[in-house]
Amino acid sequence: MQLAKLLHLQGFHITFVNTEHNHRRLVRTGGPEAVKGLPDFHPPVSCIVSDGVMTFGIRAAEILGVQHATFWTASACGFLGYLQFDELIRRGISPLKEAIRTNFGGQVYKIGPLHLLGKEMYEPETESKSISLNLWKEDLKCTEWLDEKEPQSVVYVNYGSMAVMSVLWIIRSDITMGSSAILPTEFLEEIKGRGCLAGWCPQQEVLSHPAVGVFLTHCGWNSAMESVSAGVPMICWPFYAEQQTNCRYACTEWGIGVELSQDVKRNEVVDAVEEMMNGEAGKVMKHKALEWQKKAREAVGVQGSSLDNFMKFLLDYDHKNKYRLAGSI
Predict the structure, then answer these.
(1) Among 143, 276, 292, 168, which residue's Cα sits nearest to residue 227?
(2) Which of 24, 45, 130, 231 could anchor a disulfide with 290, C-beta 3.0 to 4.6 Å?
(3) Which H helix or E strand runs over 166?
(4) pTM (two decimals)
(5) pLDDT the model gives residue 79
């Protein structure tokens, strides 16, 4: 949706195709108006931009005889890892027998972080600015709660979607078995006054709040980019897909994170939070995080690499090639 709105700002008419499952979730969350769109979103299709994992979009474009771009929404480092599947299969390392055996061709345009790029390009009263794909209703009480906290005193916890510090913990309604997460009464008593539990939140706003000192995350790419853009270091607990690769970059290459073990225990979390919030290593990571925040903002600014790549993609639109967009900074 962020990319669709950026293209719309450049004069393109957009028809946004969503899954039936997510469409129903959007209606439940925001009502029928959430999927109404704008009146100019329905002209004939001349180009298909499809998610990188939905390769049937490529075939559909070929059948229709229109141009196609694949938008890779995860990290560029993860994407480069996926391109090595062929080699893993060739060497007999990977058991995957049906993996894609050909690399993508064409040009790669690195255009993220999209939410920062959008802020640079939106006009103040742009009609499409209000359109979003928020699958859960945001609980705004968490930002009010943050307003009462000291700078960099809160641990923000969100797994996509506990220690002695204040903690803001986002627990999605679909993240646990059953209709909702049920926590022990003793736990709720223990965090009373210094803990806030919410079903969902405006994450970009929360990460940018001065009270947030560290982000405990699964290292999904959106969360990683939003954390980098806000200058907030991370405690990383990756689970699947390219989250482990993102975690390695955050902890090893960028120096803005620390990784938890898969079989994490209470003491490990306590030690990680204490070090990130009060330790010398944490101070270094906070400084590094601010450096990466500056780089992210420069990338979407005038003559920045991300903005330049986005405009180059638009200029190349008339060429009869297939393009690949990689959502990296």
Answers:
(1) 292
(2) 231
(3) strand 166-170
(4) 0.77
(5) 86
